[in-house]
Amino acid sequence: MTSTSRAETVLVTGATGFIGSHTWVDLLAAGHRVVGVDNFVNSSPRVLDRLRKVVDGDIDFVRLDVRDRAALGDVFRRWKIDSVIHFAALKAVGESVDIPLEYYDTNVNATLGLVRVMAEHGVRRLVFSSSCAIYGAADKVPIAEDTPARPTNPYARTKWMCEQILADLCARDPSWHVTSLRYFNPAGAHESGLLGEDPRGVPNNVMPYLAQVAVARRPELSIFGDDYPTPDGTGVRDYIHVVDLAEGHRLALDHLDDQAGHRVINLGTGAGTSVRELLAAFSAACARDLPSRVVARRPGDVAALVADAALARTALGWSARRDVADMCRDAWEFQRLNPGGYDDEEEPDELVGQP
Ligand SMILES: NC(=O)c1ccc[n+]([C@@H]2O[C@H](COP(=O)([O-])OP(=O)(O)OC[C@H]3O[C@@H](n4cnc5c(N)ncnc54)[C@H](O)[C@@H]3O)[C@@H](O)[C@H]2O)c1
């Protein structure tokens, strides 16, 4: 494990999203320059003002759709980009079943376009957002990277296809350095309470759902099944603090040159938490017993998804430093300060009138 922590100019796609915004902060703190791009399809322009507050400075941002190769090309002409972290994607499993073509276009086509534009500009260093969703219902937990992929829905298939495209590209041209990070369940928020998870519509993930129950935007948490073969019968997941995840991206970037070609690394804590345990932890964080009700299992849900986190430790020197109590404390602080999410505020002046 060697590391090049030289300052780079990093293009971050999906930069105003949940994980992108936290990674942006981490990269700037480490001395990198960041050019962020996003089309706000699942994020708020108000994140830009929050970012300026957190980093106490100006930021470089371009509003664009990552499927627009010409617009991406302009970014590469305007800045001398050294590497790319590609977060931009659609990520709701249920929605991906309803509008699969939109998912293949945004997640797969955009990735194809991005690597083409990168190649045209001589940039061959990429960190790609993959997901533990590609493992499907793995036979063995904890799940190591060599577990065969068995994606069970269009969203997971888009991530698996992108990984395969990147692997094929790297096999043909070893001047590429690509790391696909398979994250488990990102949760939490920036400790300032200025940045956090603010999904549009009904949250798909349990943590933002709980946070909205805590501010009475939702009446109760639905627990999807309590008859799984887990200690308390509810689903077990490997929650990872978004700030730890952001650090993992920075370290993946620093270690891109360690190995030519494509490699795959899990980012998880290696520890599982059940829905009931998470409910108790969030109730403790907000000092109120949050209401819940057991309902039927959701199709496609699996009993347990927990990472084997060993490779991230040896390859990147990374391991999670924050636990579920920290995630609940920070997610609660963000929700408490922003009960209606980012959209409680007025539109920033610079974006009024933009397409
Ligand atoms: N949050 C999770 O549970 C999780 C788990 C595993 C993997 N991931 C992956 O991590 C990445 C980031 O996830 P997140 O949780 O921050 O999601 P997010 O929705 O908050 O962020 C994604 C960002 O990409 C932007 N985007 C989407 N389509 C775009 C397009 N065509 N052009 C420009 N911008 C576009 C959205 O506006 C959003 O700001 C995604 O690739 C996601 O699939 C997320």
TrEMBL record:
Its cofactor is NAD(+). InterPro entries: Epimerase_deHydtase (IPR001509), NAD(P)-bd_dom_sf (IPR036291), UDP_G4E (IPR005886). SUPFAM superfamilies: NAD(P)-binding Rossmann-fold domains. One of its GO terms (cellular component) is cytosol. Residues 10-268 form the NAD-dependent epimerase/dehydratase domain. GO terms for biological process: galactose metabolic process. Its EC number is 5.1.3.2. Pathway: Carbohydrate metabolism; galactose metabolism. Transmembrane segments: none annotated. NCBIfam families: galE, PRK10675.1. Belongs to the NAD(P)-dependent epimerase/dehydratase family. Homodimer. This is UDP-glucose 4-epimerase. The lineage of its organism: Bacteria, Bacillati, Actinomycetota, Actinomycetes, Frankiales.
